[in-house]
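Lecture notes, part 5. Sequence design as translation. It can be helpful to think of inverse folding as translation between two languages: the language of shapes and the language of residues. The source text, in structure tokens, appears below.
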């Protein structure tokens, strides 16, 4: 089958012919019809993820498609069904999974990182009964391609971890794929959204999705005044020490900071002075378990959240076009979820 591969960190990304996968016990093979091109793929290509240990490597971790093969022991799913899956594939067997927290499963696997990814005609989903999400008729594969990472990650970060409420101020720093999804989800939740990004185009896109105020990073210091004392919830959707510090500085007393963006250094210091003095909550957020997708899909079904609005305009990229686009993700302004069609 055709797939994107690279044979070293930072090396050339090419379209290759590789062996088709076979379904593992309790797993399935999905024929990929749409995949999302995410900045995390760029981080992996740069060598920022220790889970990538074998080459050649196939990137890509957001996808939707149809079940092409069933492994031994899979029940409840059938060939041809339209599905997606979280980028964190939980084991389904451990106490963490039993508690419904598969997004932090200690035995997790991740396509595009620990396993071959979805910038290929087919991809494996392990522990299918734990990780597969059946798509309702109202959700197309193009819209669903961002569910595996960006949209679901933003939903859990804003709704479950940040606990944003109607009328509260939500500050989103970094309007890439996750950040724009957080803006749209915050608006759908009834929050008043402040969106921050260095790029004019990204701020414009945030306004189109319903952000009430948009700021450049240089203007972020104005956020407490503009929000009448500070945001109730701040989200670092970029992943930088400056964004983390800026969010904390922009929160009102007893506000909640949610760290979604991957920080380049695990030892990044957290300014604890304001955290203690203003009793701020600092919360991590890492994807979303498949068992929690029902609530998100209900928002889509009842019209509160338009997944189509989060998809970048234009036709999906071919694999060859994705090979050229992936290295540019480190500094490209976001248009929304950029799609790849691995069949092309």
């Amino acid at each position: 089958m055709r797939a994107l591969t690279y044979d070293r960190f930072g090396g050339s990304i090419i379209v290759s012919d590789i062996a088709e996968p076979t379904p593992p016990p309790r797993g399935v093979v999905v024929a990929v019809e749409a995949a999302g091109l995410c900045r995390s793929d760029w981080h992996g290509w740069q060598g920022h993820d220790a889970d990538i240990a074998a080459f050649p490597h196939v990137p890509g971790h957001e996808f939707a498609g149809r079940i092409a093969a069933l492994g031994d022991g899979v029940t409840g799913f059938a060939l041809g069904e339209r599905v997606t899956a979280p980028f964190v594939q939980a084991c389904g067997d451990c106490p963490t999974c039993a508690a419904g927290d598969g997004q932090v499963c200690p035995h997790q696997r991740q396509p595009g990182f620990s396993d071959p990814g979805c910038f290929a005609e087919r991809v494996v989903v392990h522990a299918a009964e734990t990780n597969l999400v059946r798509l309702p008729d109202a959700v197309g594969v193009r819209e669903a391609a961002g569910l595996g990472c960006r949209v679901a990650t933003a939903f859990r970060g804003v709704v479950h971890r940040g606990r944003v409420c109607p009328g509260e101020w939500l500050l989103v720093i970094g309007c890439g794929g996750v950040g724009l999804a957080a803006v749209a989800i915050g608006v759908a939740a009834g929050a008043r959204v402040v969106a921050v990004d260095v790029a004019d185009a990204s701020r414009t896109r945030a306004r189109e999705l319903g952000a009430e105020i948009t700021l450049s990073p240089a203007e972020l210091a104005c956020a407490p005044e503009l929000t009448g004392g500070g945001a109730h919830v701040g989200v670092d959707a970029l992943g930088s020490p400056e964004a983390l510090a800026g969010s904390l500085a922009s929160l009102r007393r007893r506000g909640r900071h949610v760290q979604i963006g991957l920080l380049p250094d695990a030892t990044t210091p957290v300014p604890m002075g304001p955290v203690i003095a203003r009793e701020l909550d600092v919360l991590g957020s890492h994807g979303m378990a498949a068992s929690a997708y029902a609530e998100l899909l209900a928002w889509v079904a009842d019209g509160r959240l338009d997944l189509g609005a989060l998809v970048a305009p234009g036709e999906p990229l071919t694999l060859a076009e994705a090979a050229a686009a992936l290295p540019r993700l480190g500094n490209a302004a976001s248009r929304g979820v950029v799609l790849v069609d691995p069949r092309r």
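The translated text above is only one of many valid answers, since several sequences can fold into similar shapes. The chain has twelve helices and 14 strands.
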